[in-house]
Amino acid sequence: MWPSTFCAWLILARVWVFIPLPARSMQPPDQNMTEMTQMFQDFMIQYNKSYKSPEEMHHRFKVFEQNLKASRELQASELGTAQYGVTQFSDLTESEFKTMFGIPQPIEPPIVNRLAKSPKAQNPPSSCDWRKFGAITEVKKQGSCRSCWAFAAASNIEALWNIHRHSPRNVSVQELVDCTSHGCSGGYVWDAFLTVINRSGLSSSKLYPYAGKDQRCQQYRRRQVTGIEGYEILPREERDLAEIVASQGPITVLFNMKALQQYKNGVIWRTSQDCSKEHLDHFALVVGYGQVPKQHESPAKQYWIIQNSWGKRWGEKGYFRLHRGDNTCGVAMFAVTAVVKNLGARSEARVLCPR
Ligand SMILES: *[C@@H]1O[C@H](CO)[C@@H](O)[C@H](O)[C@H]1NC(C)=O
Ligand SMILES: *[C@@H]1O[C@H](CO)[C@@H](O)[C@H](O)[C@H]1NC(C)=O
Ligand SMILES: *[C@@H]1O[C@H](CO)[C@@H](O)[C@H](O)[C@H]1NC(C)=O
Ligand SMILES: *[C@@H]1O[C@H](CO)[C@@H](O)[C@H](O)[C@H]1NC(C)=O
């Protein structure tokens, strides 16, 4: 740690020179600026950041300052329990963040291989967490490829194989990226499922590892394949979705990722004014749901538990929670899941989601 601390100090000493004149006039540097510089230094160390030149560093320092301001604004208008602040993305402008991780606005997904009717909403249990079943594979990191859709689809398939076939699998996300149109420029979960169907299943991630960039679609012979029976476009009612998660397993969702750049932990709950339900740019995997108990006057807050693909150092160990019940950030608009059946069983054994 010592050398990098030292290095950051040296670079920061140089940033100081670039701080505009008013801030470094005759008086000692303003308390405020010292604090900000300290925070930026801590950020650089914590996330192992380095910049090509003092100019670049100065620019990133300004962006960092802007992001802190944005996170305070988010905090002030937060309806849930989310905390916003410094994250690994605090040196990216909002538009850089969108360009790196966002996907293009979707059109309606094609409805094919619609196998089963969605269950009639019974009373879903009050909470459900498939992580406790050991069904969820580890949090992954997409890197600088806009492949959230491929990660969400792969983790959905892996979870369903665990739950319905009791067979742990790590499937190839790179195969989805390489063999689906758009690849790293951003695609859709339903196209990923069509690719899986078209290829009669995916190779393992060991055989076809993640590269985080577009490559030629590989055809491996005698690969072990992990297939699906189809996919389902799910209803837009969050109550129905909870019932489906509890009775079938994790599902993928598409939503507006606006609040995620500055997110640290807690339950995100935004109004539709500051998190549009129409601008949907990120896919992730719902692994369960729950509620924050009633406190004094404030009512119980219901939420979704969602696995992201930005590594374990982001959010709540790679997960985040989003308010459930009023289609926050458009989360209920395009819920989709693969269909994986227990082919051996005479009738589908009922699997219970752990609370
Ligand atoms: C710096 O000062 C400005 C204006 O006085 C204030 O709005 C801001 O919150 C301060 N920043 C920090 C990090 O305290
Ligand atoms: C920090 O970043 C440098 C260069 O960007 C890299 O060589 C090094 O391995 C990183 N260290 C850690 C602990 O991630
Ligand atoms: C999947 O990957 C994880 C993490 O690398 C590993 O621990 C696990 O054993 C793998 N599972 C299979 C079935 O290969
Ligand atoms: C997969 O897609 C290709 C190209 O679109 C098509 O030619 C091929 O017939 C499809 N294969 C299957 C098994 O559907």
From TrEMBL:
<dbReference type="InterPro" id="IPR013201">
    <property type="entry name" value="Prot_inhib_I29"/>
</dbReference>
<feature type="domain" description="Peptidase C1A papain C-terminal">
    <location>
        <begin position="124"/>
        <end position="339"/>
    </location>
</feature>
<feature type="signal peptide">
    <location>
        <begin position="1"/>
        <end position="25"/>
    </location>
</feature>
<dbReference type="InterPro" id="IPR039417">
    <property type="entry name" value="Peptidase_C1A_papain-like"/>
</dbReference>
<protein>
    <submittedName>
        <fullName>Cathepsin W-like</fullName>
    </submittedName>
</protein>
<dbReference type="Pfam" id="PF08246">
    <property type="entry name" value="Inhibitor_I29"/>
</dbReference>
<dbReference type="InterPro" id="IPR013128">
    <property type="entry name" value="Peptidase_C1A"/>
</dbReference>
<dbReference type="InterPro" id="IPR038765">
    <property type="entry name" value="Papain-like_cys_pep_sf"/>
</dbReference>
<comment type="similarity">
    <text>Belongs to the peptidase C1 family.</text>
</comment>
<dbReference type="InterPro" id="IPR025661">
    <property type="entry name" value="Pept_asp_AS"/>
</dbReference>
<dbReference type="Pfam" id="PF00112">
    <property type="entry name" value="Peptidase_C1"/>
</dbReference>
<dbReference type="InterPro" id="IPR000668">
    <property type="entry name" value="Peptidase_C1A_C"/>
</dbReference>
<feature type="domain" description="Cathepsin propeptide inhibitor">
    <location>
        <begin position="40"/>
        <end position="97"/>
    </location>
</feature>
<keyword id="KW-0732">Signal</keyword>
